[in-house]
Amino acid sequence: MKDMIPEFAKRMIIEIALRMLNHLPQSPRIKKIHRSFYIQKFLRTDIPVANVEIARDAGVKVGKNCRFYDVKFGIEPFLIEIGDNVLISGNVQFINHDGGINIFRFEQEHIVGHYGKIKIGNNCFIGFGSIILPNVQIGNNCIICAGSVVASSFPDDCVIMGNPAKVIFKTSVYKKMKLASPYTVYDEEIWFPESDMLPQSVRKEKILKAIDKLPIRKPR
């Protein structure tokens, strides 16, 4: 049976509920209910922001102005710290333990596991399908390219790629390349992150208008 309540009505109900809850005594139970409605609001309007709030509730320490598209924080989210202005793409995994140590459990008694913290600096981007391994720190203004397996720590201003990930150049070089590229799309009315939430038909029109006639990079 189809849901009979229109989406706009659900959003209105959530907004009314949040306003009402703000005027009630803030007991632990009321705070929990308020938090639930608050996350539901963003699940209907801005999923990457909702994912940030869900990560915070799970125990991840997250800074300001972050957006998470599809991230798995594993079973030790309390070991993860993420700075301000961090954008995490889809299918990204944070791994805070090394399960391989458990093959030694018959030789060495009482092994619980091998663990490490992960810390991501400010103003970073983590690309699709990346894996961040235990005991890793990423500096500020870093880009982790899609599909990277990050097993080492890296300083500020690095573009990181590969398995195992390595520095391929400085972020300043990446900036010059991308901002001067004809494949970088600009729009005077709508830009990121709002542009990411455009209807697919509108996104398609804008992107094709900008790059449709540009040649694909040829192999060397």
Describe it.
With about 220 residues, the chain is of the alpha/beta class. The protein has 3 domains: about 1-45; about 60-170, Hexapeptide repeat proteins (UDP N-Acetylglucosamine Acyltransferase, domain 1, 3 Solenoid), CATH 2.160.10.10; about 180-215, no CATH class. About 30% of the residues lie in helices and about 20% in strands. The protein is built from 5 helices and 14 strands. The protein has a 6-stranded mixed beta sheet. The chain has a 4-stranded parallel beta sheet with strand order 1-4-7-10, with helices on one face. Strand 13 and strand 14 form a beta hairpin. Helix 1 (about 5-20) packs antiparallel against helix 2 (about 30-45) and helix 2 (about 30-45) packs antiparallel against helix 3 (about 45-60). The termini are far apart. The model has no long low-confidence stretch (mean pLDDT about 90).
> Structural class, from secondary structure content?
alpha/beta
Which runs of at least 5 residues are low in confidence (pLDDT < 50)? none
CATH structural fold name of the largest domain: UDP N-Acetylglucosamine Acyltransferase, domain 1
* Individual helix count: 5
Radius of gyration: 21 Å
State the CATH architecture of the largest domain: 3 Solenoid
What is the beta-strand fraction? 15-25%
Along the chain, the helix and strand elements come as HHHEEEEEEEEEEEEEEHH
Please identify which CATH superfamily of the largest domain we are dealing with. Hexapeptide repeat proteins
For the termini, the CA-CA separation is 56 Å
Give the beta-strand count. Answer: 14
Query: How many structural domains are formed by the residues?
Result: 3
Share of helix, binned: 25-40%
Numbering strands along the chain, what is their spatial order in the largest sheet?
Answer: 2-5-8-11-13-14
CATH uppermost class of the largest domain: Mainly Beta
What general outline do the C-alpha atoms trace?
flat
Average pLDDT, all residues:
88
| Main sheet overview | 6 strands, mixed
